[in-house]
Amino acid sequence: MSQFGKGSSKRGKTTYAYAIIGVALVLFLFGIVGWFFIDVRKTGDYLKESIQIQAFLNRDASKTEIDSLQQYIAAVPYVKSAEYVTKEMAIERYNADNDTSWRKFITNNPLPESIDFNVKADHVQADSLNVLAENLQNAFPGVISEFKFPTVAVDKVSKYVKAGALVFLIIAVILTMLVIISIDNTIRLAMYSNRFLIKTMQMVGATRWFIAKPIDIRAIINGLISALLAIIAVYSTVLLVEYFVPDFKTLHDTKSMAVLFMGIIILGIIISVFSTHRAVLKYLRMKLDDLY
Question: What whole-number distance in Å separates Cα of residue 23 and Cα of residue 103?
Fold first, then answer.
C-alpha cells in the first residue's frame, strides 16, 4: 500500500509539473499577443500626439496677448505642450525642411508667428479640434489669424488606429478563448492520471469537499506558478526586444503591462481552479468501472 502511495505521489508531481509548464506556455503566448496589442495602441497614440496644431498670430498681437494665449492653451487639460514660435524660429524650421533659394527673391521673412501645440490622443479628432479652435477665437478675439491642423492626417490616423485596435481586439478575444480551452484540456489531462486516487478517497468515505479542497488549493498554487513563469518569460522577451530594437522603448507602457500581468495571474488561477474542480466532480460522479 505504501508503494502504491509513493508511486501515485511521484506520478502526481510529474503530472502537475507538466501541467504547470503547459499552462505557462499558453499564458506566455497570451501575454505576447497582449503586449503586441499594447504596442499597437501606443503606436496609434504616438502618431496622434505627434500631429502638430498651429494657432497663427496676427501681426499686431501684443506680447502680453501672446503670452496669455500660450498660457491658456497650455492650461487646457488635454494639451500636452504649447510653444511660442517666433518668426525667426519659423524660418529656421522651414529652411531645415525646404529649399532656401527663395531668399534670392524675397528678403523679408513672410512666415507668421504661431503657438504650436500637441494634444492627447483621445482628442485628436477633427470635431474636438474645431471646437477648440472656436473656443480660442472667442476667448482671444483678434489675436489668432488662423487655426491650422492637418485634417486629412487626423482623419486617416484616427481611422487606421481604430481599425488596427479592432483587429487586435478580435484576435485577443479569439486567443483568450483558445487559451481557456487549451488550459482546460491541459488541466483535465493532468487530473486524468489522478482519477483512481480521487475515486479511492470517495470509496473510503471522504466527502466531496474534503477531496476537492486540497486539489483546488494545489490548482491555485499551480496556476500562480504558471502565471509567474509566463510573466517572467513575457517580461524577459519585452526587455530583449527593447534592447535590440530601441524604438520599442518609446512604446513601453508600464501601467498597461502591469494590467496585462495581473490579467495573466487572474486568468491562470481562475481557469486552473475551475478546470480542476470540474474534473474532480466529473470523476466523483463516475462509476469505478467507467474510469478504466
Answer: 68
